[in-house]
From TrEMBL:
This is Ribokinase. Residues 302-321 are annotated as: Disordered. GO terms for biological process: fructose metabolic process. It comes from the Bacteria. Coiled coil: none annotated. CDD domains: bac_FRK (cd01167). The lineage of its organism: Bacteria, Bacillati, Actinomycetota, Actinomycetes, Pseudonocardiales. GO terms for molecular function: ATP binding; fructokinase activity.
Length: 321
């Protein structure tokens, strides 16, 4: 069973317009990288608090219902006056997703400091954030301040989850700022190919650990994950063979699996910071393997549909995703 303590997740909860089973049609599905991670955590049994701005429109109400049904605590969600954000998703013949966005003036980016004043109250042991919420003005500055407030007392988890279509300017400087505050950084190989083209992943991992992270994990799609710790551990685990339906939400599910494994081992909170940095090799591999299996399950079905704890346990017992 997961250890006590709440994981807060801050960022966007938007609606994905995804390909439907009938060719040429699309349907609405809950999405947004942070919201997907929150759902993944809740399904794996971790107490999770969502910090989001949800509109009181048709799409916002659907998002709220989806999060509530999955056991995500919405007591700190802001009722936003602005409309919901949308992402149009296309999937290629390999199941790889690409995105177009409708986000101008929408609810997710309008944070004020007052709205997050008590966001970390109570038994919050970790804060996870990233993606568009940390790069889209005006709310990005407010969320970055939240990360700074969280860092002294809570474990900070960060996923850049880059969206080049919307992330203009000097994104790398902002990423490095967050890496310097984070304990855990999960980043995809696609993110790094865009942020630091031509730089080896091992070089990036070394640099980001030197900037202060305790654990950096680079997801490699079907090739698995490369990870290293501040204490000098380095490991690479293969991916799990799976018939890919699409990759929507796979990275967010990996984050949820990674955080669940660390939470279960009691490695969150300021008091556990040194223990996280010194995680044993067997424990690290087990945590990463669980995250890989969780992501593989999501890839095997349509949309951002992370597994439950029972599904993940069954995959471990069977040796298949």
């Amino acid at each position: 069973m997961p250890a006590p303590g709440v994981v807060a997740v801050a960022g966007e909860a938007l609606v994905d317009i995804v390909p439907a089973p009938v060719a040429g049609y699309h349907e609405l599905a809950p999405g947004g990288s942070p919201a997907n991670t929150a759902v993944g955590l809740a399904r794996l049994g971790v107490p999770v608090r969502m910090l989001a701005r949800l509109a009181d429109d048709l799409l916002g109400r659907r998002l709220r219902t989806h999060l509530e049904r999955n056991g995500v605590d919405l007591s700190h969600v802001v009722a936003a006056a602005e409309p919901s954000s949308m992402a149009v998703v296309e999937v290629d013949e390999r199941g790889v997703a690409s995105y177009d966005f409708r986000v101008a003036g929408t609810a997710d980016w309008q944070w004020t400091a007052d709205e997050l004043a008590d966001a970390l109250s109570g038994p919050v042991v970790a804060l996870h954030t990233g993606s568009l919420a940390l790069t889209t003005a005006p709310g990005a500055a407010v969320l970055r301040d939240l990360v700074r407030r969280a860092a002294p007392t809570a474990t900070v988890s960060y996923d850049p989850n880059c969206r080049p279509l919307l992330m203009g300017g000097d994104v790398l400087a902002g990423v490095h700022e967050m890496v310097g505050l984070a304990d855990i950084v999960k980043v995809s190989s696609e993110d790094l190919d865009w942020l630091l083209p031509g730089t080896s992943y091992d070089t990036v991992v070394d640099d980001w650990l030197a900037r202060g992270a305790a654990l950096v994990a680079v997801t490699l799609g079907a090739d698995g994950v490369l990870a290293a710790t501040a204490a000098g551990l380095r490991t690479r685990l293969p991916g799990r063979p799976v018939e890919v339906v699409d990759t929507v939400g796979a990275g967010d599910t990996f984050s949820a699996g990674l955080l669940t494994g660390l939470h279960t081992r009691g490695l969150f909170g300021a008091a556990a910071r040194e223990a996280l940095r010194a995680i044993a090799a067997d424990d690290l591999d087990a945590v990463l393997d669980g995250a890989i299996r969780a992501a593989a399950i999501t890839c095997s079905r349509r949309g951002a549909d992370p597994p439950t704890a029972d599904e993940l346990d069954r995959s471990a017992a069977s040796g298949r995703p």
